[in-house]
Amino acid sequence: MTLANLRQNLDFLSTLKGIATLLRDPTQTESVYDVEDGLRHTRATELSVEFVKSKPEVAELFKERYLAPSVNIDDLLQLPEASLGHAYATYIKDSGFDPNFYRLVKVEDDVSYFLLRMRQTHDIWHIVVGFSTDIYGELGLKAFELAQTHRTMSAVLIAGGLLGTLFKKPEKLDQLLEQVAIGYRLGTKAEPLFAKKWEENWDRPLTEWRQELGIEPMKEYVP
Predict the structure, then answer these.
(1) How far, CA to CA in Å, does 109 sit from each of 41, 153, 222?
(2) N or C: which end of the chain has fewer CB within 10 A?
(3) Upper half-sphere CA count for residue 221 (Cβ side, 13 Å)
(4) What CA–CA distance (Å, rounded) separates 186 from 190?
(5) Using CA atoms, how far apart are residues 117 and 150, in angstroms rounded to an integer?
(6) Is residue 101 a contact partner of residue 29, using CB atoms and an 8 Å limit?
(7) CA triplet 181, 184, 188: central angle to 5 degrees?
(8) What is the pLDDT of residues 77-109, one digit of tens each?
(9) Each residue of 136-172: pLDDT tens digit?
(10) Beta-carbon neighbour count of residue 184 at 10 Å?
(11) Helix locations, the chain, DSSP H
């Protein structure tokens, strides 16, 4: 067995392990990273990065390898209430989240940069797009990501969410499908979120961000 084949088999096992864990318990965040790490070396992920980079403003961010420093939640809470930074900090604090919880990736190429930046800005996307953090909100955001980036993990998690709902809570299927449809539609209409340096403009009003990006008011699509 060649080294490439061995890696492919290990990646496949990592993906299956992550999917199986998430089907049992969708709250297991670490398993999400197992899924994505297992998909890291696939052609689908390479095509996802190519798709994202087809937008000139996003390609510039890749060239720069822009990554923001760790945030100070207490500092952000001092910003005006209408600002993105205040909204983000409030969301993180009220949810009991760690803003640096995500699994790190060593940036070695475009794929690793893409994975790390998406992980770094996940909760910012939640705030800007407006989906909740329950299973339906998460999958709605994954549909938004899929439209915007063709991210392989998003497609796998949506498929897993549909399968889990069919087996465990079939009466919730319409609710899930509605969130996925809304998220995907929003993603196709909005400007590319990946292109934004949110962390350099924390004080900017959230409403201005949404207006610039072409995102509808929250009340129209939050579950």
Answers:
(1) 11, 18, 35
(2) N
(3) 27
(4) 6
(5) 15
(6) yes
(7) 140
(8) 999 999 999 999 999 999 888 887 778 889 999
(9) 999 999 999 999 999 998 998 898 889 889 888 999 9
(10) 20
(11) 3-24, 29-39, 43-53, 56-64, 73-76, 84-95, 110-120, 122-129, 135-149, 152-168, 173-189, 206-213
Burial category of 122 from C-beta neighbours within 10 Å (exposed 0-12, middle 13-18, buried 19 and up): middle
User: Which structure tokens are listed for 97?
Assistant: 């989240």
Rounded to the nearest angstrom, the gap between the alpha carbon of residue 72 and the centroid of all alpha carbons in its chain is 21
Q: Which residues contact 100 (CB under 8 A, 6 or more apart)?
A: 70
Residue 50: both structure tokens together: 């190519």
For the chain, give the number of residues: 223
Tokens standing for 222? Answer: 């939050």
Burial-class residue 68 by CB neighbours within 10 Å (0-12, 13-18, 19+).
Answer: middle
If one counts the domains in the chain, the total is 1
Cα–Cα distance measured from residue 160 to residue 44, given in angstroms and rounded to the nearest whole number: 17
Give one word for 126, left, alpha or beta, with left for phi > 0 and alpha for psi -120 to 50.
alpha
Contact 134, 72 (CB under 8 A): no
